[in-house]
Amino acid sequence: MLLLSIRPEFVDKIFAGQKRVELRRRKPRLQSGDMIAVYATKPRCELVGIVRVVAVRQSTPCMLWMTVGSEAGIDRQQYDEYFAGSEAAIGIELADPVRFKRPATLQELRAVWPGFHPPQSYRYLNLDEAGLIEQLRTDPNKCDSAQPSRSAP
């Protein structure tokens, strides 16, 4: 599982079904069927839900826009600004967004996940951390008692 930090306006579009492709300048190790835990960055600072990876596309910025631009949740100007100076563009196709009944705040995450720091972009989760995400998905009250058996970096 991947923990992905995303700006709040894009998080909302993902869970509203208006953004079906997440754009990145660096390609994470993902494949079809993998799950992504979605963390909304400042000012919200909360773990919001999970989504499933359909596919990961890599191309030039121009070619990727032609393929997935209508599903990226941004306009062409924003897209061009984001990929300015980049030779490669990554599009992570998303499906089946599941918003948690109650997001887990940064304070709650730190209380149950020793040493938790949201990633600048993304980070891979070990099995214990992924298990905690699953517990939070199924029972939002787990924030009060859930803890991975190993501390997270």
Describe the structure.
The longest helix is centred in the C-terminal third of the chain and has 12 residues, at 127-138. The chain has a single domain (2-144), classed as Hypothetical protein (Archaeosine Trna-guanine Transglycosylase, Chain: A, domain 4, Roll), CATH 2.30.130.30. The protein is an alpha+beta fold and 153 residues long. It has a 6-stranded mixed sheet. The protein is built from 5 helices and 6 strands. The chain has helices at 8-15, 61-68, 76-82, 106-112, 127-138; strands spanning 2-6, 21-24, 35-40, 46-59, 89-105, 122-124. A hairpin with a 5-residue loop joins strand 3 (35-40) and strand 4. The two termini are 15 Å apart. The protein is elongated.
Protein topology:
Layout (H helix, E strand, L loop, with lengths): L1 E5 L1 H8 L5 E4 L10 E6 L5 E14 L1 H8 L7 H7 L6 E17 H7 L9 E3 L2 H12 L15
